[in-house]
Automatic annotation (TrEMBL):
<dbReference type="Pfam" id="PF02493">
    <property type="entry name" value="MORN"/>
</dbReference>
<keyword id="KW-0677">Repeat</keyword>
<dbReference type="GO" id="GO:0001669">
    <property type="term" value="C:acrosomal vesicle"/>
</dbReference>
<dbReference type="InterPro" id="IPR003409">
    <property type="entry name" value="MORN"/>
</dbReference>
<dbReference type="InterPro" id="IPR052472">
    <property type="entry name" value="MORN3"/>
</dbReference>
<protein>
    <recommendedName>
        <fullName>MORN repeat-containing protein 3</fullName>
    </recommendedName>
</protein>
<keyword id="KW-0968">Cytoplasmic vesicle</keyword>
<comment type="function">
    <text>Assembles a suppression complex (suppresome) by tethering SIRT1 and MDM2 to regulate composite modifications of p53/TP53. Confers both deacetylation-mediated functional inactivation, by SIRT1, and ubiquitination-dependent degradation, by MDM2, of p53/TP53, promoting a proliferative and cell survival behaviors. May play a role in the regulation of spermatogenesis.</text>
</comment>
Amino acid sequence: MPIVKYPRATEPLWHEWDWKAQKCGLRHTVYAVNGDQYTGEWLDNLKHGKGTQVWKRTGAIYSGDWKFGKRDGYGSYSIPDPVTKEYKKVYTGWWKNDQKCGYGATFYPGGERYEGEWSGGLRSGWGRMYYRDGSIYEGQWLADRPGGQGMLRLPNENRYEGGWKDGKKHGPGKFFYLDTGQLFEGIWAADIPKCGILIDFGRDEAPAPTQYPIPKV
C-alpha cells in the first residue's frame, strides 16, 4: 500500500508575530500610536502591576499600581509646570478603576491642598482643605463639597462648627467671633443664619471686643 505524505501545516506568519507581540510580565517601554508611553508590568496585554505611564499630549506622568489596564492601587500623578517645565505633584494616594478612591492628597494651583478621602474621583468622606486665603475646612465631604458635619476656621481665627450642605452652612451650627468675643448659635440655611442666639464668649480675651457687653435676658 503506497504511503501518502501530506505536507506539514504551517502557521501563518501573523500568528508568530502576534505571539511575539503579546505583553505579559515586565517589559521595556511600549509606545502607543498616539505617542503615549508605558514602562512596567503587563498581564494579557493589559497594564497590570507596577508601572509608569507618560501622556504625550499633556506630559503628565502616573507612577504606581495598575490593574487590568487601569490605575488601581497606590500611585502618584504629576504634571509639568508650563513655565519651568519641572514636574509638580498633583495627586498622591489611592486609586480604583482609574479614579481617585480612598485616602489621598491633592495639590491645586495657587497653593491650595486637600488631604482626605475620595470616592469616584470626588472628595467624599472625611477630609481637610487648605484654601488660598488661609482658611481651613475640616470635616465631612459629599460629591466634592463640604456636606455633613465640619469646621471652617478663617484666617482671623474666627470659626464655624456645624452642619453643611452643598458646600454651604446648613442646619444647626455655632459661629465663634473670637476677634470680638461673641458666639452665635442657631440655624443656618444656604450660608445664611435664619435664627439663633448671640452671646458674649471670651470677651475679656478678645483682641477687639465690642464696646458694650450683651445684656443677659
